[in-house]
Specification:
The chain is α+β, with helices and mostly antiparallel strands and about 260 residues long. Helices cover about 35% and strands about 5% of the residues. Helix 3 (about 140-150) crosses helix 4. It starts with 5 loop residues before the first helix and ends in a 12-residue tail after the last helix.
Length: about 260
């Protein structure tokens, strides 16, 4: 049997490397697709939670946003456990922050009597998904809402609060209406364009739940759509825009010391 020459060996190794580079993304894709589908299912279930809550609320309003300053997360105390029985629904398994114990208590110094190692609404934070509680369509509306919330730490925001913040920031959102999210089945076309909850995206590398970088967006009519994130995204691509990523994804609220890190 003749010995393989060095150049032949190097050729074989080179071909193997090229094939590996070409095939690895394809091999990784099924897993990414699986996680993306899992998150889409989570959001669809949250859509049902919001509908059930709205059907039993005055004015058919969706749940309020978390009372924790800077936390763009649905108020878990308003939906758990009556409407949301499994809190794992608000955890994306493919997130850089994805841990099964993400929202559990590691101590109960600030929660006397609470069971350590169990889910607690106070620990829920927008590590995975974003929820504002208002009808937002564009970046300037999100900026106005963020400014209004920073100025008024407690209580339900009103359109007066939001418009005042918009005027101070010289934002075009001063003339735009941002009512509370409501069950709007009577106008299916409009509700199909209202983003309700979506995958959190940050501007830093690795601060995204999915590959390619993008977000599953739950709309008010209950459907979920995946939208790619890129520097070329326009304001109309909200909430998958750079400004939205800066507002909702670049900082996380301070949680209780009892919560798992």
């Amino acid at each position: 049997m003749r010995k393989m020459k060095l150049w032949e060996l190097l050729t074989i190794i080179g071909v193997a490397v090229v094939l590996a580079v070409l095939l690895l993304p394809a091999l990784a894709q099924p897993g990414d697709v699986h996680y993306r589908a899992s998150c889409q299912n989570n959001l669809k279930q949250m859509g049902l939670v919001f509908k059930m809550y709205a059907n039993e609320s005055k004015g058919a309003s969706y749940p309020p946003v978390s009372s924790v300053p800077g936390s763009w997360m649905v108020s878990m105390a308003s939906i758990y456990p009556e409407y949301l029985t499994d809190p794992r629904i608000v955890i994306c398994p493919n997130s850089p922050h994805g841990r099964k114990d993400a929202f559990v208590l590691k101590d109960n110094r600030e929660h006397p009597g609470a069971k350590v190692g169990s889910f607690h609404p106070d620990c829920a934070a927008p590590l995975f998904y974003v929820y504002t509680g208002y009808e937002l369509f564009r970046d300037e509306q999100a900026r106005a809402l963020c400014s209004a919330r920073a100025a008024r730490q407690e209580g339900l925001l009103t359109m007066t609060d939001i418009n005042m913040a918009a005027k101070k920031g010289k934002s075009a959102a001063a003339a735009l209406s941002m009512p509370r999210l409501k069950d709007s089945d009577r106008d299916r076309l409009r509700s199909s364009r209202i983003p309700t909850m979506w995958d959190r995206i940050g501007t830093a590398k690795g601060e995204s739940n999915h590959t390619p970088v993008g977000s599953n967006v739950l709309y008010a009519d209950g459907h979920v759509e995946f939208k790619k994130y890129g520097m070329g995204n326009k304001p109309d691509d909200f909430p998958v825009t750079r400004e939205a990523a800066e507002i909702f994804g670049d900082s996380l609220p301070q949680r209780s010391r009892d919560c798992a890190d």
